[in-house]
Amino acid sequence: MDDRQRYDRATAALEPPFAILDLAAMRANAASMVRRAAGKPIRVATKSLRSRPVLERVLAIEGFRGLMAFTLPEALWLASRGRTDILVAYPTADRQALAALAADADAARHITITVDSADHLAYLDQALSGVHPRHEIRLCLDIDAGFVALGGRFRAGALRSPVRDADQAARLAADIAKRPGYRLAGLLAYEAQIAGVGDAPQSAAYGRVVRLMQTLSARELVMRRGRIVNAVRQVADLEFVNGGGTGSIERTVREKAVTEVAAGSGLFHPRLFDFYRGFTGHPAAMFALPVVRRPSPDTVTVLGGGYIASGPPGTGRAPQPYLPAGLRYSRDEGAGEVQTPLTGQAAEDLRVGDRVWFRHAKAGELCERFDTLHLVDGDTVVESVPTYRGEGRTFL
């Protein structure tokens, strides 16, 4: 029985649109990620999964430890539900959430928030000035891990922290150490240009350029990140140094300075992760849309489908018509808000009421569209669990 038959049989009682998670595929992806991490723990990126029951399943797998949240309100909610060791990977300016963190001893013990400037520290002081009692706030220093070349004329990597070298990091760490009520617990440096950029794109020439950039970037970063960590450790007793992502696990864990890696998208293996040479994953998360009409013999129209992923606009951010194989978007309409025409030879065999299975380009944004993930094992739905949206939580 092929995957399409399995999924159709497992979900025969469900009415599309709906989303599924293939547990066998996710387990295989998790095992691969743990092997690649070579003994260092993987902190689970919640933005990639956005379902508490799924997060709990992953954390039960040996090799995964701790959560990387994307907002402080999310972290507070997770902590209130019993989760511990939560790193908020992006700075926050949410005064109410900061006050709640500082006023809650249990949350303050389990949540670490990110800063990258003296401005952040000044904002925290102001936001927390009226909180009594105020508990110690755990901080993580975010470092720019981007690759800069040609005298600054070329840059690859996410535009995150302004802190780039060891002196800058040590000065900010010393500033934190002088301020009562804060403790520098960790350091974060995310090399998006390696972890989040596939090195095997459809263009061979572009792929060679990407691999050269990533090689040069990794060589530069291992030295710079090591110097930064050594400098900060002179000021603070760091509990963790976090780096990497699904696309760079095996590279990042080789660095002695790094104590853990962050990853999450690889568990679902969305479409953008097909373009890496270093690992092969199994598509695990997908959604089904119903065929609702046939405007021509080689075209069908499915309901909805315009679930475009974030990032630079382009066709690569649209979901992939996955099963049956051989479907493609109409050039004039693409993935639509309420309808999506699909053409190709496979469309000739589809009838009204049939399902078309799609893979999202990225991982976590899928769960912003659906309130439930139906967990498939073999050809059976073994459980249906809520996403964040299904629990009434939409943090971004």
Structural overview:
By secondary structure, this protein is of the alpha/beta class. The strands form three sheets. Strands 1, 12, 13, 14, 15, 16, 17, 18 and 19 form a nine-stranded mixed beta sheet that branches. It is globular. The protein has helices spanning 3-10, 23-37, 52-59, 72-80, 95-103, 105-110, 118-127, 166-178, 192-195, 204-233, 249-252, 265-268; strands at 18-22, 42-45, 64-69, 86-88, 111-115, 137-143, 147-149, 154-156, 182-189, 240-243, 260-263, 285-296, 299-303, 320-323, 328-329, 339-343, 355-359, 372-377, 380-386. Helix 4 links the parallel strand 3 and strand 4 (86-88). The relative contact order is 0.17. It starts with a helix and ends in a 10-residue tail after the last strand.
